[in-house]
Each structure stands twice: as structure tokens, then as C-alpha cells.
């Protein structure tokens, strides 16, 4: 029996997931009026490391020049720190987006996980504050929590 060559052309490889998803997310960001994805990507360079750790850009609201940029922050302390820096931040954002693009910054507390590791426990040998039965009870409690967490 004679083998016939395939009449179908070879399939090309699937497009890279990063390229496809980037275009989908960029379109979604434009539809929901979220800040330009490039702005979010360059946020640490625009805002500075300190403010970038405390905030992330959200939506651009308003019409025409002089829009309002919403910044999402995790808590009230971060909101106060970002609010104190808004004048300089507006100038830096406008140097990236164009003159007069942003006239106002609205700081919104969006909640979220804290960046710190939480409260630190005292060293192993230290029973903690107080002495006597309270120190013994705290040491016993710490040991029970450590045993429970190590089992996970």
C-alpha cells in the first residue's frame, strides 16, 4: 500500500501565554478605567520605593485633563503617609502620564494583608513579661501553639 503525504499544513505553536494574557488584561483595565498597566508596572520607579510599598494605583476617574487617580492602601497609617506625599506624587505621575493628566489623588483604604511579619515572640529561654505563674502559663501556651503549628 502506498503512503500518501498529508495535505494539511503543520500547525504552528500556540502563542505565548504572557503575550495573550497581557492583551486581555490591558483591554480589561481600559474597560474598567483602571490605571494603565504600564503605570502599575512602573509604580515603584514613579512613586518611589517607600510609597510603592504602601500603595498601588487604582482607577483614573473624571473627564478630560485633570483626572483623579485613586490609590489603594492597606490601612489608615499607610493612608496618612501617602496623603502627606500627594503633592510630589502628582508631579511625578504627571511627568509620566503627561502634563495635567492627574490633578488630584484620592487615597482609598482597600484593606489587605500587612507587609510586616507580625509581632515577634520573645526568645525561647525568656518566659516573657512577669514572673511566677503568669510567665509559666505564657511559656506553656507558646509551646502548645508551636506544637500545633509544626503539625501543619
UniProtKB/TrEMBL annotation:
<dbReference type="Pfam" id="PF05258">
    <property type="entry name" value="DciA"/>
</dbReference>
<dbReference type="InterPro" id="IPR007922">
    <property type="entry name" value="DciA-like"/>
</dbReference>
<feature type="region of interest" description="Disordered">
    <location>
        <begin position="111"/>
        <end position="136"/>
    </location>
</feature>
<protein>
    <recommendedName>
        <fullName>DUF721 domain-containing protein</fullName>
    </recommendedName>
</protein>
Amino acid at each position: 500500500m502506498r503512503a500518501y503525504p498529508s495535505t494539511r499544513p503543520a500547525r504552528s505553536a500556540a502563542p505565548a501565554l504572557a503575550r495573550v494574557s497581557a492583551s486581555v488584561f490591558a483591554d480589561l483595565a481600559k474597560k474598567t478605567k483602571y490605571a494603565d498597566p504600564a503605570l502599575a508596572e512602573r509604580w515603584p520607579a514613579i512613586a518611589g520605593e517607600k510609597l510603592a510599598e504602601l500603595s498601588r494605583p487604582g482607577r483614573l476617574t473624571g473627564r478630560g485633563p485633570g483626572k483623579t487617580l485613586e490609590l489603594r492602601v492597606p490601612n489608615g497609617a499607610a493612608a496618612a503617609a501617602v496623603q502627606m506625599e500627594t503633592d510630589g506624587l502628582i508631579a511625578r505621575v504627571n511627568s509620566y502620564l503627561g502634563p495635567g493628566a492627574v490633578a488630584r489623588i484620592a487615597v482609598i483604604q482597600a484593606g489587605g494583608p500587612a507587609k510586616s511579619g507580625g509581632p515577634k515572640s520573645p526568645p525561647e529561654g525568656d518566659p516573657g513579661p512577669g514572673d511566677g505563674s503568669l510567665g509559666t502559663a505564657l511559656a506553656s501556651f507558646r509551646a502548645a501553639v508551636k506544637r500545633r503549628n509544626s503539625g501543619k
